[in-house]
TrEMBL record:
Transmembrane portions of the chain: 108-132, 173-197
Domain of life from the UniProt record: Eukaryota
Keyword Transmembrane helix in record: yes
GO annotation terms (biological process): cytochrome complex assembly
Location within or outside the cell: Membrane
GO CC, one annotated term: membrane
Name of protein: ResB-like domain-containing protein
Membrane topology: Multi-pass membrane protein
Main subcellular localisation: membrane
Keyword Repeat applies: no
Source species taxonomy: Eukaryota, Viridiplantae, Streptophyta, Embryophyta, Tracheophyta
Amino acid sequence: MPSPTCYLLLHPSRTCHRLLPPSPRLPARCARLRVSCDVPRQGGDGPKRGVIPAGPGKGKKQVVFFDAAPPVAQQGDGEDGKGNAPEAKKDGAALRALRRATKRTLSVLSNLPLAITEMFAIAGLMALGTVIDQGEPPSHYFEQFPEDNPVFGFITWRWILTPGFDHMFSSPVFLGLLALLAASLMACTFTTQLPMVKVAKRWSFMSSGGSIRKQDFAESLPRASIQDLGVILMGARYEVFTKGPSLYAFKGLAGRYAPIGVHVAMIFVMAGATLSATGSFKGSVDVPQGLNFVIGDIMKPKGIFSVAPDVFNTEVHVNRFYMEYYDSGEVSQFIAIFHFSTLMAKK
């Protein structure tokens, strides 16, 4: 015959004498027990519950005693036999931490004062780039900003060459600010502008007059018709929705997309400026009439993404260069005649 299953209902508010020898895990005061046992009785269809009554009390807790040890999957309250948390819980905690970090980062990047500060910093660097000569050899800055006579008492050539302000628009500081501003624009678009568009596309119908009168602007038109009002609003370029005796209309949804378009346009402009600053070439040469030069010999890369195209293997021969004049003696236009040939073709 199977052993009965026992339940202990504890009344923490009551006290009783200790029935067991003292143990370091058992407190000096214990709870009064209410014991109920499921035991098989004669003449019954199955085990029934016999209850040993106890005094009334609050805060009952149920303690379950099993006939056998619980399965391995239940050991350690969801842990394995070695006391380690399951891999699923570890993955879930890591995923939650990643989501919190991503949300916090987007919140910081989408901050409007931060974006304004970034734009002012970029504008200041651009103004500084027009004042400082760009693309000159280091000796030029040694002469213009000497250490023995610094400009404004502290600006020397180190302030120009160390951060790369001699090539301002491809310097790490300038490109880093552009990247930070682009990240702020994208964060603002995804966390603010797109949700605003989704909210603006929703509509709801108010069924009670009290809720309508609580709006900022409310008017009562006893003799108005819903159909006529809808036609009038559609003529005023409103989007109109009707549901039974209710009408909902809105306009200006296209204006919700305007900030998104501005952000996308700014990102494209900054991406183009970055690609131009880091992937282009610059060079100049003075060639007398009748001589040749190779394009690749005079064009120098401006950034880390500058890749020389095949056209740099082209040799240019200056056949003739002359000017045309007006009758008054002023120059009308410059005319140059070149002959192009590839180095591979010549070989």
